[in-house]
Structures are given as C-alpha cells and as structure tokens.
C-alpha cells in the first residue's frame, strides 16, 4: 500500500483539509468495523502507538483515536489552525505537523510566495521531509489551497515548487479553489493569475474548483431537502454536503461547500485505499489524463449530488448517475464539458457497479461527447468496491476538457481590469523580489495556456484525416 | 511434464486464479484417473501437507490484487497458491509500459527470476512457461514483457507462451494502444506463441450466450478460463498412442506457430451457455462442428450471429495459386488450426470440414496446417465441447485498429513525454510500429 501526504495551506486550504480528514475518518470507521488500524487506513493515517490501534467507531464517537493524519498544515495566521487544535479533530494532528505565523499574507500573493516563502523555506522543507519519512512508499502529495488570498495562493504555490525540488518523483495533485466573480478579496485576480503560472509549471495535475459552483450546488441541495416533491427529498445525512457522523458537531459557514471538495478527495483516493475489480492508482491519473505536460487541468464532477442516494438503485438511476456526471450542474467549476472538447476523461466509480454498467454507459454517452481526433476513445475507468458512507454507489468524473478555457479567460479579464489601472500594484511591488515582470510573465503564461486550449478547440468537429500509416517494403 | 504459469498485473492475476480454479475442479470431477493425474502433474504440485499448490508465480507492483487472488484460491478449499510464490510491491506501474519495462522490471529482476526458477526446479520436467497478462496497463504489459525477456535468456530452449488479454476497443486505459503496441512488438521477438483474448469478444459471450445481466470481471475471466482450460487440459494427440500428451505447450506451439511471422493465436469454444441450461441441452457433434467451422471462416467468435453467407474460395485443382479475387467477402484464411474435442463419442467424430484445403494458405501442407486432439473426458460440465485454436487472420482487424489508433496519437506526440521520462524514445516507438506493420502486412497477405 502506498501513502499520500496532504499539504493544506492558508485559511481555505486548512478548512477544506479538515473537512477531508473528518469525512475520511468517518468513512474508515464505517468500513473498518473492528476499529483496528489496517492497510486502507495506512494510506492517509499513521499509527501512533503500535500497541493501541483503536480508531473511532461511528457508534462510539468519543472513543480515542490513536492515529495521526499524514498532513502538513501551513497558515501565516493562527486563527484557523488554532480553531482546529481546539476542535474535535485535535487528536489527529500533532504539533510538529503545524506551521503558523501571526499576521497573514494580507491577500497578497507576493507576501505569501516571496516574503514568507523565503523566511519559512527551511522549516517547510523540514516538515515535508518529516511527513515523508513516516511513509514507506510515498506516492502522492495533495496540496489544497485557494487561489484568491495571499497565503494559499502565494505560499501554497511556493510549497508546490519546493515539493518538486525535494521529491521530484512523487506525484503532485493540487486542489485549487478559484474565487467567484463576486469575491470579496479585491486582489484575487492578481493572486490567481500569479498562482496559475506556478500551477501550470509545477503541478502534475490541478483539480480546479470554483466557489461559485459550490455555492450553487449547496443552494440547490438545501432547496431540495427543504420540502420539494416527496420522492425527490434528499435525506440530510446522506447528502454530499453533510458532515453527519463525523467528529465535528456544529457546522461553520464554509462547511457545506467544503464537504463537497472533501468528497472529491475521498473519491479520487478511494481506489488507492480500498479493493476493487479495476483499481485506479493515483499515478494513473496523470498518466492517462495529461497528454501534454502543461495541459493538466482536470475538471471534476461528482454524482449523485441531488438524487436520493440511499434507496436500492435500479439500473435507470445508475445510468442517470453517469449522465449527470456530464451535465453542467454537476461540475465543480462553471463549465460545460459536453459542448467543448474532451482530451481525456476518467470515470472513477465506487460501490456495487460492474464493468457491464461502465461499458453500457460509455457506449451510450460517447456519441454525444466530442473527443479530440487522436484520442477518440479517451476513457479511463476505475472500479472500487467500497461506496461512500450513506450511498450505494458514486461516480467522480475527471475531464481534461477545453471547457476550462472560459474560467481562465474570465480570470484574465478580471486581472486586466485591475492591471490597466495599476490598482493595488504598489502593494505587490513593495515586496522584496517582486517585479513588474512577474505580472507580465504570469499573464503571458496564462495567455499561452488559453491559446493552447484554443488550438485544440479549433479542431473540434473538423474531420481530421488519419495519419498516413507506415508502409512496409515487401 | 509441468507448466509453470507466471501471472502478471491485475488482469494476469485475476484471470490466472480463475484458470487454476477451473482446471482443479475439472480434474476433480473427471472420473478418469489418468486424466486427473495428468492434469495435476501439469498444473499443481503437492505440499508436504498434501494440499494442491498451483505451479504459479504471482507478480504485481501493488499488493491488493495478489492478496485478493491468494485469498480466493485458499477459500476454494481445493487448492492454494504457494505461500512464498508471489512478488508484490507497493505502487503499481501507473499504466505506463515504460515504467514497468524500464524501471520496475530491471529493479526486481533477481527476485522475480528466483521465484520462477524455484517453481521450475519443482517440476520433474518442464513443458514450458506460460505468462498471463493484459497489454493495456503498465505492470502486466511492461513488467510482463521484461520478465518474458529474462525467461527467454534463462530458458532458451523452453517453450514460452504468452496469454494476453486485449482491452475493450472503447478503452479503459487511455494509453492502452501505446502499451499494447510496445508489448506486442517486443513479445513477437521473444515468445513462441501469443494466445489472445479480447475483452470485447468475451464480454459479448457473457451477455449473449450466458445471459449475464451485470457482467463482472469474474464472469469474463471464467469464460477465458474455460476456453484456456479446454486447450490446456490433457488430451490425446495423434502420436501420443492413447496416453495423454505430455507436453501441452510444445504440442500447441508446434501445431500452430510454425513461422516466426505468424504467432497470433485466437480461441473459440462451442457450446457455451448459462450453467443452468447445460443439463437441458443436447448436442450432436456434426452440429457443433458445422457451427464451429462457420465461426472460423466467417471470423465470428461465438455461435450467435454467425454469417452463413461466407464461403471458402473455390480451389481450382489446376491452379494451386489462389488469388484474392477468388476469396469470398469476409472470409478468414487460416495458416493453421488445432481442433480439440472433449467428451462423449469423440473417437467416432468426423472432422473433415476442417481438413478442407480451401480454408488454408497454399504454402503449408494440410498435414502441417491441421491438428486434432481428443479426450473422452467431458470438460467442465459439458457433455461435448469443441475448441478451436487458430492461427488465422482473426486478429488482423483488432490489431490493425490498435496500431492505427496508437499511430494517430503518436502523430500528435500526445502522451509521449510520459514514456520518454522513463527512457523510451520516439525511435523505440517507431521500431514498435514498424515491426507490427510488418505483422499486419504478413497476415494480410495470407488471404
Ligand atoms: N470553498 C472555500 N473557500 C474559502 C474558504 N475560506 C476562504 N475561501 C476563499 O478563499 C479566498 C481567500 O483566501 P484565504 O484562503 O482565505 O486566504 P489565505 O490563503 O488564508 O491568505 P491570507 O488570508 O491572505 O493570508 C476567497 O476566495 C474565499 O472565498 C473555505 O473554507 N472554503
Ligand atoms: N479480462 C479481464 N481483463 C482485465 C481484468 N483486470 C484488468 N483487465 C484489463 O486489463 C487492462 C488494465 O490492465 P491491468 O491488468 O489492470 O494493469 P496492470 O498490469 O496491473 O498494470 P498497472 O496497474 O498499470 O501497474 C484493461 O484492458 C482491463 O480491461 C480482469 O480481471 N479480466
Ligand atoms: Mg488567511
Ligand atoms: Mg494494476
């Protein structure tokens, strides 16, 4: 079994990370009825005391936990991390995993990336190495951060390049929370564009998640669970935004949104943790979904989100789950993959689903989905036998699709609006090491990325002739 | 003589487990002592405690599948895998042939060779080695190729058969065509014969013949295992003089893979049906063989949906040289066929339909092109069953598709960086393409 380390940076990164840990514990407690430390648990948790191997069992929520998360928590202010340390999850973190400062990065990428990045470089590397030493086969780093603030976006992407330097062979999968257009951080377009360049150059895969999409999903689920037609009612505790059965009691503002992201992470790692008839290991994600190194943005969609999930599901519902994965309102960024071009698509299925269900649905959906000419069968599939808590099955789709382009164009426009007026620039240029060229280079990187997607888009619908085959002299 | 099986990667380990299971239960059911003993000797040895232990080595670069297969075998209560006959690692090859072939293979060479050597030394006499794997992933394909290469070096005179599972055409691994091309191009140089099952075909058998609604990999693997078992279980060959042939792999290879350009073997079996229906069905040999022959010439891998219009070309006795224009549309030309009949009344069965020169290329004599094995013991609950192993154009189209798709992808250089990272260059790809285009052209010229 391999291990992964989660690196959560900034407020958003830490809050999402904590939801992940809470739900991961809930999931393992649910599967692992005996409550012993097992192989599945070893991929994200390390055993603290080999004599005492108890994990929390759902029915006995207060039983002590004797394992630590494989996590590194970084924030340049104390609030969020302190809250975690006072909360019910405190027992799964030990103080050597934490790194905090007091003042925050003030929504300034440059402060996070350069000032704190240089000041804390050694300490960060040290924490990462320590986390790595606890693993006997480290496979993947999961970085969680927001794009809009200063710490997550600035220091988070600094951590990313440190990971590349220190652990070049370990896969780096980044979950990036993109700001909505109404985001209250005025400088978020700067921070996001500056961070984008780092993501494009140093990540193996990026899973972009858009706060606006999360808000929309949460609202829709809440709306449906309050009233609505009988039969379409969502049971609150099995909804994907629910944290019930977890350790944390009262829900905080972002929790419902963050639970969705946590579920994304649970599903993406499920095959690495549990058995299945078609395993999909973490190193298969980049291998299958990234045809060219820079084009590694994978649009996630989760299903079921809105359907009643805990009834015994007939085939039609199962098929609906597959259809939904391609619809607009199940994407975690605002995008329409069906009307854009697929470079590759992964279907990661959990629960009681067989190959025949996969084949049937791929055959059914394929005609309506445009794939790039050189990969008309760009499907990657995985079957994991353990479903999420409260569900009989679930599906995570990861699409390498040109539908990310509008999000990037939108970001570029918002950046330009500020940059044309030189608004707030001086806050950045004051920071040691920060120059105007950082802005122009980041912009150039984003523009060329958009251009690359654009070129691919242009091939859509055009009949591309097959490459002439090699001829054999006979 | 005994066969040592090497199971590689998820697919190899899952299919292999089903194969041993069927072989073991079939040998137990057969009333004939000689048959059982011969089968046992081939595929199992006895532990000190008297348990049947598969002559198999399990190799994967991750632990989950091996654990699962070993547990399943132990739970059968009939046989087990050797407690120390497996080699697992922690992290799979990530669907990357280059990672398997260039990194994992060389890194673990000694350990893997040692396991096989131990298994070989346990055999009184080695009939050959069978390596089982998929071609689409990274471990079965890449490590499997590497291990085959090592075994070829250690056992230059032994028969090596590769059993390959080809992926669904519509894909489960996006780089499956690259991995397949690299695997096949290498194995073509190393292996004595390459026996292929296509997942699409087997899936269809499950749904249309066995009427399974929710088809799992286990269902698919049982069909593959049934077909393979009916090839590998003991049978009487023309020159075995009434005793079960001792060298299944050697006989198989020498009947079918007579030329280094032609090593691709396909299998079909008749009848196949839901086990509940077997008891209520009766079959006649002429009926079974008539269907099987039409399945061969029309290249249909199951008895449903056979195109009865396809006819062999008429052979003019005067003109030994047959030409394309004489060949009917959709006709599948064979280089060589091996027909295996098992069950009731096999000795009195007519097999003339397969000894028709029109079925074969002109450059082999019928005696070389057609072989027949028989066993009076019914196989795996079927009172009568016939299996045809064929070296024909049957795999030409899927191979051509595979190479074509890989070539299209290669033309845009998509995913190539994932391979160069581990030391496979664009030239290596080109070499692979070149040698498979050669194979395609050779099979194309058969007809
Ligand atoms: N989905 C989600 N978004 C969050 C959360 N917390 C903050 N955000 C978003 O993240 C962006 C702000 O970044 P933060 O993560 O708060 O900032 P930070 O990384 O702590 O950086 P500084 O506070 O500048 O040091 C805004 O777009 C917020 O909407 C959260 O818990 N969940
Ligand atoms: N028939 C059949 N095919 C399988 C089975 N398991 C996997 N496959 C096929 O095998 C291919 C994937 O290769 P795997 O065998 O899973 O890969 P692997 O050899 O373990 O290599 P890595 O996982 O990449 O290290 C796909 O084409 C699957 O359809 C199985 O049990 N039966
Ligand atoms: Mg903050
Ligand atoms: Mg595998």
UniProtKB/TrEMBL annotation, chain A:
Single GO MF annotation: GTP binding
Family indicated by similarity: Belongs to the tubulin family.
Annotated Tubulin/FtsZ GTPase domain residues: 51-276
Superkingdom: Eukaryota
UniProt keyword annotations, A-Z: Cytoplasm, Cytoskeleton, GTP-binding, Microtubule, Nucleotide-binding
Family annotation (PROSITE patterns): TUBULIN (PS00227)
Pfam families in UniProt: Tubulin, Tubulin_C
Organism for this UniProt entry: Myripristis murdjan (pinecone soldierfish)
Entry's localization field: Cytoplasm, Cytoskeleton
InterPro entries named in the record: Epsilon_tubulin, Tub_FtsZ_C, Tubulin, Tubulin/FtsZ_2-layer-sand-dom, Tubulin/FtsZ_GTPase_sf, Tubulin_C, Tubulin_CS, Tubulin_FtsZ_GTPase
Name of the protein in question: Tubulin epsilon 1
Domain spans labelled Tubulin/FtsZ 2-layer sandwich: 278-413
GO cellular component: microtubule
Signal peptide per UniProt: none
Coiled-coil positions: none
BP terms from Gene Ontology: microtubule-based process
TrEMBL record, chain B:
Name of the featured protein: Tubulin delta chain
Domain Tubulin/FtsZ GTPase: 40-239
Protein purpose: Acts as a positive regulator of hedgehog signaling and regulates ciliary function.
Pfam family, any one: Tubulin
Similarity comment: Belongs to the tubulin family.
Gene symbol of the encoding locus: TUBD1
GO cellular component assignments: centriole; cilium; microtubule; nucleus
Lineage: Eukaryota, Metazoa, Chordata, Craniata, Vertebrata
Principal subcellular localization: other
Organism listed in the record: Myripristis murdjan
Cell location: Cell projection, Cilium; Cytoplasm, Cytoskeleton, Microtubule organizing center, Centrosome, Centriole; Nucleus
Alphabetized Gene3D superfamilies for the sequence: Helix hairpin bin, Tubulin/FtsZ, GTPase domain
Superkingdom to which the source organism belongs: Eukaryota
A single GO BP: cell projection organization
